Amino acid sequence: MGKVKAWAMDYMEDIQFNFLQGNIDAQQCATALAKSGLMEPDEIELWIDDATAERAKNIADSALQGHPK
């Protein structure tokens, strides 16, 4: 894999991670993923739709950390 493609893959994974952790919203994620050039708009939309439930769980888990049970 070339250096540019490797960079783009790392960039894409970082964006996806930040979305899943709730650090960025869907619009920011879609814009950043489009910049990577590795995903088509339909693929981006599908990925965000599929990842939204996991994102919500991660945000809820993060909000509950440190609270007594």
Summarize the structure in words.
The chain is mainly α. The chain has one domain. The protein is built from three helices and no strands. It has helices at 3-20, 26-36, 41-64. α2 (26-36) crosses α3. The chain is elongated. The model has no long low-confidence stretch (mean pLDDT 91).
Which band does the percent of strand residues land in? Answer: under 5%
Terminal CA distance reads 48 Å
* Helix percentage: over 70%
Mean pLDDT comes to 91
Runs in which pLDDT lies below 50 for 5 or more consecutive residues are none
Tell me, what's the shape? Answer: elongated
Count of alpha and pi helical runs: 3
Total tally of structural domains: 1
SSE-based structural type: mainly alpha
The topology string of helices and strands comes to HHH
Oligomer: single chain
Number of strands: 0
Radius of gyration: 14 Å
The major pleated sheet works out as: none
Task: Spell out the key features of this protein.
0% strand; mainly alpha; 69 residues; single chain; elongated; 77% helix
Topology of helices and strands:
Layout: H1 3-20, H2 26-36, H3 41-64
Helix pairs in contact: 1-2, 2-3
Quick rundown:
This protein has helices spanning 3-20, 26-36, 41-64. The chain is mainly α. It has one domain (3-64).
